[in-house]
Amino acid sequence: MPIKAAAFALALVLSAFFVHDVSAQPAAQSRTPLQLAEAVERRAGTTDFRALEAFGREAIRRNDREGLQRLYHVAWIFLNQGEFDTARIWNDRLMEGARHQGSHRYIQIARLNALALRYDEGETAAADEMRRLASMEPDWFARTHATRLWALALMDRDQIGEGLKLLTDADALIPEGDAYARIAQAGLWEMTGIGLMRLNDIDGATAAFGRFEIDLANPDYPRPDFDAVYNLARLSTQLGDVEQAKRLYQVHHRLTLRAGLPSLGVYDARLCAMVAQAAEAPQDVLRCLAPYGENLGDASFLSTQLLPARAIARAQTGQIESARRDLAQIRRRITVDRYREEARLEVAHVEAEILFAEGRAAEAYVKLRAYNSAERVAEARVFSGGIRQVTGDMQHKLTERRAQLETARSNTRLQGLILTIAAIFILSALAALLWMGSQARDLRIARRRAEEASRSKSEFLANMSHEIRTPLNGVVAMADALSRAGLEPREREMVEVIRSSAVTLERLLSDILDTSKIEAGQIVLERSVFDLGDTVRGAAALYRPRADEKGVALRVEVEPTIEGAVEGDVVRVRQVLSNLISNALKFTETGSVVVAAVAVDEDRVRFTVSDTGCGFDAGQKGRIFNRFQQADGSITRRFGGTGLGLAISRDLVALMGGVLDCDGRPDEGADFWFEIPLTRVGGVQSPSAPFGPGDAGETDARAFPARILLADDHPANRKVVEIMLADMPTELVAVEDGRQAVEAFRKGGFDMVLMDMQMPVMDGLTATAAIRALETGENRVRTPIIMLTANALPDHVEAGRVAGADGHLSKPITLVGLLDGVAAALAAAERRENPVAA
């Protein structure tokens, strides 16, 4: 078999082995060498090497992993162009950035690039370190880079089959879906193309270079390089396709002139000489090399190819002395081992051409035969090495196949055992399903019991709320009334102790109820329109007397941009603010407490309560929001409290779609803040809260209802309201149950109804609904009804609203709370009667 035909067959065989998982790769276009060259010219024509360096400078400023990858791209392209000094500068920048970021991957990439520079400059020993990294490097990306460099070194040693196999193995290292997988694959295809080019497989090389240059290239990275055009033009000359080689050279020459890099000019001159030599045009060979002078100047690093070409051209044009000078220079360089083996073969070719030019045809013929024989031996050695690699791979695959067949026979013998195990597994699965069904029934029963327990707990809390708040109402109200009775200082002090203790007990009861409701998921947010600034100032105003008493400055700072109406749950916003302000005053003995509200964005507000109190450290912060815990036990002993307020506030803020957190410093104070979404309501006046006391202010005695109907089954509660309203210009009519209330209302003449929710004979909800029905049936004006109840749960408030109540006051009731509730109900009634004025 002739050597050229054998090489072609080897290319086909190796192609089948190196094209790894083609179906898993993106589909590549089928291109001719000229089509690929045109595509590369279009791509390279959109940028230049100045843009590449600007890209590198921008990469340095990124200071991240992508920046390192871009520096690698810049250094590698300059290295491929033979611009070794520039490549070394960019590779040093890559190393500096990688060390700064602590990136092992790119430190290794920079080391490998440095090895490649040493190798390209003639230090063949650098390949040994490439081989070590290709086999031992743990990072897949750096290992892939090392593998392709080592594969190229193997190809330089004519071990093309082994090099291609290494590239195939390296592809298996690339993790599918990784952000840099395509870049790594492109690098492998570049080296694969070089390997196929050395096997004279121009179609395979074109396809491989197409994957590298176009299909897998990152469009965001500038690519002014055009190595594939050079390689395909060179291969075309070797295959004798001179016309194609000329056209490819023209593309290369245009791109070289555009690039303006000295090293590319050298490669362009070499390609020019190769094409001219293939076209048997020695004068053109000399013209191509003339710019570099007798000693080749900047092109001396390619002297292994340029000197033989120039010597042959000189001999063919009769410049025998010049040809012999070139031959002498070639021999001198061989003695210092600066030529590889394939270049040494050209000595015989040069000698034959010189002898022929001198008219010594017989001697020239002998030299030419020696040259052709040596060339055939070299080609045979390449072919033999490739075949040995392929047959070795085939033997390995056959061994694997035998092992697979033996495994299959073993599997057949084990099928009976597998079927037995499968039967046992099925029976076990059925037993497990039966057991799971039993467990599911038990879980359903347990869930029903838990739900019943939760309902019982809610009912218990509601009843306890009623039973505790009813007597507590008497205590708070009587203490409130006594504090206004002109008592002696000592007596006033005792009354204040009673009032303060009752308020603390009521706060504790409310916290326990809120905690229970949060745990049970029974908290329902009620969105309404309210004035944000007034709400913040109102919450702070409730604590101003306490601050003044302690000598602590209490300031409110509301950003002007958030003044006005917003939509949200005003009750819960006020509750969280009250908890934070109360907490700040509790722990602040001197200094100030600042309540601030600022806009975070258009529909999000941050509230901050800052104090100059005892503060806390990082360890204490972790316990602050736990239920029944404070920063430490000494705080509970010193300041009191249950530790529920902050936990409740955090849960309420979370329900409102926000976050609550704090910062503190021991003995320097603390900042508690929360952010919640509050929708701006432009041009809408915020109404007073229709349910419960709020910001209604003091009620004008002249506008107070002249006649009020009170329905409450508890004598103490009736007495409380009677005492509270004793100084008001109103007549109070008290009844003991809902039926009496309906009968009294039927007779007419009442301006307002205060209705207890839980009463014998007829409860307050039924009585309220009956009164509304009576008003509708007799076409009466709607009379304001306020529910007085110890049940503070949201569903009870909603039940009162549905029944027809206009307001809701939770016991214990204070005079201020009662007057505010009356004012709010009257304001709501006035808005209904005069909607335009409202």
UniProtKB/TrEMBL annotation:
Residues 707-826 form the Response regulatory domain. Residues 1-24 form the signal peptide. Residues 313-360 form a coiled coil. The chain crosses the membrane at residues 417-438. It catalyses: ATP + protein L-histidine = ADP + protein N-phospho-L-histidine. PROSITE patterns: HIS_KIN, RESPONSE_REGULATORY. Gene3D superfamilies: 1.10.287.130, 3.40.50.2300, Histidine kinase-like ATPase, C-terminal domain, Tetratricopeptide repeat domain. GO terms for cellular component: membrane. The keyword Transport does not apply. One of its GO terms (molecular function) is ATP binding. Its EC number is 2.7.13.3. Keywords: ATP-binding, Coiled coil, Kinase, Membrane, Nucleotide-binding, Phosphoprotein, Signal, Transferase, Transmembrane, Transmembrane helix, Two-component regulatory system. CDD domains: HATPase_EvgS-ArcB-TorS-like, HisKA, REC_hyHK_CKI1_RcsC-like. It is an enzyme of class 2 (transferase). Residues 463-680 form the Histidine kinase domain. It is found in: Membrane. This is histidine kinase. It comes from Brevundimonas mediterranea.
